C-alpha cells in the first residue's frame, strides 16, 4: 500500500524495530487509528498459548507462576497478564502489542564517525580486526574472551566505526545499569557526530530512536528486528545468565541477518562448552593493555572467620594483613557477602581506627555513586562492598580482600572479576588479592586456576 | 509448593500431621517477605488505628472538633506503612500487578473476622470507588480487589465523580477537598467502607457523611494500611 500518510521521520525512528503497548506509542489516537487502518502498525496477540503453557510475547516468559489473572473493569472479563515484565507496563489480553510494518527509516552513513584518537595495543588490534570481519561477513555470533582490564570498550571502536560507515544501526547491551552509565559518556566522546542514547530503568529519555543505543538487556524487551549489530557486554553477569528470556530477547532485537558480539572476562560453563566444541566462534585476549600479568589471588585460612563476622569483628589475620601490607599507600577494597555485614564491619572499623577513612556501599545504598566517586578520588581509604563492585569499575591502585570467600555469592566468575579489580593502571600494575576463608571451595580453587591459566596463555611464566 | 508473590522464591513447606487432617491455607508470601510487613498491634488510637499512646490521636481530635459529630465510627487497619509496603502498594496499584492482593489475603480476612464478624450483624461492604477515568487507566479498582477477598462482597453502591490523586496533595489540601462521591441507592444497614490506605481519613469521611445523611445508621472503615 502506498504511504499517502506522512509521518515525521522522528516518529518513524521511534517506532521502527519496536514492539510496543498502545500507551507507549508516540502518536495520538487519531494517527494511531489511521496507521492501523493503513496496516503500518500491526497488532499482535500479547499472550499466546503454546501447548500446555502460555507465552508473553514481550518478555517470552513461560513460567506459570509468573502469569496472573485480573478482573478487567473495561470489558468485564478476567484477563491473563504477565507478571514478569510488569515494571515496563502491564502486558495483558486486554491490550494488543504493536509492531511497525512501514518503511525502515534511513540511518545516516558516517564518513569518519570515530573521534577517538587513542592507540590500540597489538592484542586489542587483533580483537578489533576480528570484530570488523565478523560484521563484514555477517557472522551470527562471536565471543570476545578478554581478561579483566584488557580494554574491551576500545576494542569495539573499529567495529562500531565500520558499521556506522555502512549506515547500520547498533546496540550495546549489558545486564547492568552501572555499566550503561559508565559507557554512555565514553562513547559519546568517541563518536561525537553520531546520535547516541542510553536506555535504562531510570533514564530520562526513553524514546530509543538513536542509531547507536546503549541499553540494559531488559530494555531490549521493547525491540524486535531493530539492529544490525548487537554487542552484549559482560554476558556472564547477573541477571543475563540466570534469566532464560534475556538471551531470547537479545536475539529477537537483532535483524535476521545481524551479528551478535559477546564480551566477557569470565565465560560461563555453557559458553565454555560451546567454545570447546567449536559451536561458538571466539577470540581470546590474554594480556592486559599495560602488558602485565593478572594478580594471582592468595588464600588465607581463617578458622574463626564465621564467629568473628557473627560478632561483627574482624579476623586477626585480616587486620595483620591490612597493617603489614607492602604497599600501604594503596587503597583497600573489601568484598563481603551481605549488606548487613558490610554495614556492621564499617561500624566496627571506624570505632577501632577512626583515623582511617572508611565507608560501605551496596545495591540498596542511595548514595552509592557518590561514595564510589569519593573512593576513586582517593578521599576514602577502605571501602566495604558487596558484589556490586565486582565488575565494570576501575580504581587506579588498590589491594583487594574478600572476607568469607567461601560464601555462595562468590562463585568462580565473581572471584575472577574481583581479582581483576587489582592492578589495573599502568603506573601500579600489581596488587594484593587475598581470599579470607574458613575452608576452600571449588569456586576459589577454580578461580585461581583460571587466572593462572590466563596468565600462562598470555606468555607470562 | 508455590512461589512467593513478591520475591518469586519457592516456598517450601514443613509437612506435618496437620496438613493431612485439616485444610491449611497456602501461604502466598515466603517467611522473609512476610516478616518485612508490619502488623498493627499494641496501643492504638481507638478511632483510626494509628499507633499512639493516647486513646484518641491528635488527628482524630481535630476531626471531631472540625466536624462536630464524626460520621466515621471507627477505622481498622491491618498493616503499617513501611518501606516494603510502599513498594508493594506501588507495584500492585500503579503497575497493575493484581495478584499481589492475595499476598494480603490471609491477614486481611483474619483481622476482618476478629473485628467485625463478632460485633456486627447484617452489614454491607462498600469498597471506595475510583472515577471512571482512573478506573479505565488502571483496569481495576484496588479497593474493590480488597473487598472481593471478604465474605459478603457486593459491588459498590457509591460513585466517584471526579478525582485527583490524593497522594499528590499536601495534608492541608487533602483535608479541605470537596465531597467527590454520589450515592446510587440509599441503605439503612451498617456499612463497612473498604479502601487500601487511610492517610488523613478525608476520603472515608466524605463517603461516610454521604451515607449517614441518607439514612445509614453506622459507618466503619476497614483499610489495609494506616499511612
From TrEMBL, chain B:
This is Amidophosphoribosyltransferase. PANTHER family: DNA UTILIZATION PROTEIN YHGH (PTHR47505). It comes from the Bacteria. GO terms for molecular function: glycosyltransferase activity. Keywords: Glycosyltransferase, Transferase. Residues 139-225 form the Phosphoribosyltransferase domain. It comes from Cerasibacillus quisquiliarum. SUPFAM superfamilies: PRTase-like (SSF53271). Belongs to the ComF/GntX family. It holds the Pfam family Pribosyltran.
Amino acid at each position: 500500500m502506498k504511504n499517502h500518510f506522512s509521518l515525521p521521520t522522528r516518529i518513524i525512528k521511534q517506532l521502527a524495530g519496536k514492539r510496543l503497548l498502545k500507551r507507549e506509542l508516540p502518536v495520538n489516537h487519531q494517527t494511531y487509528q489511521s496507521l492501523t487502518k493503513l496496516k503500518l502498525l500491526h497488532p499482535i496477540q500479547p499472550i499466546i498459548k503454546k501447548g500446555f503453557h502460555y507465552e508473553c510475547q514481550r518478555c517470552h516468559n513461560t513460567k506459570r507462576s509468573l502469569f496472573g489473572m485480573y478482573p478487567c473493569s473495561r470489558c468485564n472479563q478476567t484477563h491473563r497478564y504477565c507478571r514478569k515484565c510488569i515494571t515496563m507496563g502491564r502486558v495483558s489480553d486486554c491490550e494488543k502489542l504493536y509492531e511497525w510494518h512501514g518503511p525502515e527509516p534511513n540511518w545516516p552513513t558516517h564518513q569518519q564517525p570515530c573521534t577517538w584518537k587513542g592507540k590500540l595495543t597489538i592484542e586489542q588490534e587483533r580483537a578489533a580486526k576480528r570484530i570488523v570481519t565478523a560484521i563484514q561477513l555477517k557472522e551470527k555470533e562471536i565471543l570476545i574472551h578478554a581478561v579483566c582490564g584488557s580494554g574491551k570498550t576500545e576494542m569495539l571502536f573499529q567495529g562500531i566505526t565500520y558499521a556506522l560507515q555502512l549506515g547500520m544501526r547498533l546496540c550495546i547491551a549489558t545486564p547492568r545499569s552501572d555499566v550503561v552509565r559508565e559507557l554512555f559518556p565514553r562513547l559519546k566522546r568517541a563518536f561525537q557526530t553520531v546520535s547516541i542514547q542510553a536506555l535504562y530503568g531510570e533514564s530520562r529519555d526513553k524514546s530509543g530512536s538513536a542509531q547507536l543505543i546503549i541499553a540494559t538487556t531488559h530494555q531490549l524487551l521493547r525491540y524486535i528486528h531493530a539492529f544490525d549489530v548487537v554487542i552484549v557486554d559482560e554476558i556472564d553477569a547477573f541477571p543475563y545468565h540466570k534469566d532464560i528470556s534475556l538471551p531470547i530477547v537479545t536475539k529477537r532485537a537483532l535483524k535476521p541477518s545481524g551479528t551478535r558480539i559477546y564480551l566477557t572476562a569470565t565465560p560461563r560453563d555453557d559458553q565454555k562448552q560451546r567454545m570447546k566444541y567449536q559451536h561458538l566462534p571466539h577470540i581470546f585476549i590474554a594480556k592486559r593493555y599495560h602488558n602485565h600479568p593478572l594478580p594471582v589471588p592468595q588464600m588465607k585460612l581463617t578458622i574463626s572467620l564465621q564467629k568473628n563476622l557473627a560478632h561483627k569483628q574482624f579476623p586477626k589475620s585480616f587486620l595483620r594483613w591490612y597493617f603489614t601490607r607492602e604497599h600501604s599507600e594503596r587503597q583497600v577494597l573489601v568484598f563481603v557477602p551481605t549488606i548487613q555485614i558490610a554495614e556492621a564491619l564499617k561500624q566496627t572499623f571506624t570505632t577501632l581506627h577512626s583515623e582511617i577513612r572508611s565507608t560501605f556501599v551496596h545495591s540498596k545504598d542511595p548514595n552509592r555513586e557518590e561514595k564510589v566517586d569519593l573512593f576513586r578520588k582517593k578521599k576514602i581509604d577502605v571501602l566495604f562492598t558487596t558484589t556490586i563492585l565486582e565488575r565494570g569499575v576501575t580504581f587506579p591502585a588498590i589491594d583487594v580482600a574478600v572476607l568469607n570467600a567461601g560464601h555462595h555469592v562468590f562463585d568462580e566468575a565473581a572471584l575472577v572479576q574481583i581479582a581483576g579489580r587489582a592492578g589495573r593502571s599502568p603506573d601500579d600494575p600489581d596488587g594484593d588479592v587475598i581470599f579470607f576463608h574458613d575452608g576452600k571451595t571449588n569456586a576459589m580453587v577454580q578461580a585461581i586456576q583460571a587466572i593462572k591459566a590466563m596468565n600462562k596463555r598470555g606468555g607470562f611464566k | 509448593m508455590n512461589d512467593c508473590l513478591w520475591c518469586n522464591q519457592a516456598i517450601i513447606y514443613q509437612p506435618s500431621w496437620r496438613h493431612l487432617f485439616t485444610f491449611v491455607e497456602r501461604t502466598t508470601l515466603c517467611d522473609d517477605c512476610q516478616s518485612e510487613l508490619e502488623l498493627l498491634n499494641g496501643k492504638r488510637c481507638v478511632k483510626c488505628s494509628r499507633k499512639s499512646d493516647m486513646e484518641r490521636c491528635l488527628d482524630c481530635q481535630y476531626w471531631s472538633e472540625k466536624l462536630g459529630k464524626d460520621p466515621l465510627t471507627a477505622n481498622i487497619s491491618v498493616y503499617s506503612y513501611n518501606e516494603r509496603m510502599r513498594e508493594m502498594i506501588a507495584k500492585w496499584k500503579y503497575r497493575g500487578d493484581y495478584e499481589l492482593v492475595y499476598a494480603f489475603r490471609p491477614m486481611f480476612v483474619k483481622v476482618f473476622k476478629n473485628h467485625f464478624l463478632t460485633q456486627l450483624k447484617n452489614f454491607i461492604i462498600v469498597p471506595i470507588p475510583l472515577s471512571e477515568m482512573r478506573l479505565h487507566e488502571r483496569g481495576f479498582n484496588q479497593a474493590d480487589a480488597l473487598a472481593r477477598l471478604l465474605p459478603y462482597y457486593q459491588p459498590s453502591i457509591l460513585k466517584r465523580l471526579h478525582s485527583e490523586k490524593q497522594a499528590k496533595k499536601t495534608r492541608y489540601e487533602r483535608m479541605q477537598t470537596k465531597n467527590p462521591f454520589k450515592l446510587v441507592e440509599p441503605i439503612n444497614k451498617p456499612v463497612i467502607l473498604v479502601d487500601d490506605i487511610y492517610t488523613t481519613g478525608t476520603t472515608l469521611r466524605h463517603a461516610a457523611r454521604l451515607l449517614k445523611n441518607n439514612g445509614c445508621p453506622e459507618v466503619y472503615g476497614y483499610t489495609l494500611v494506616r499511612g
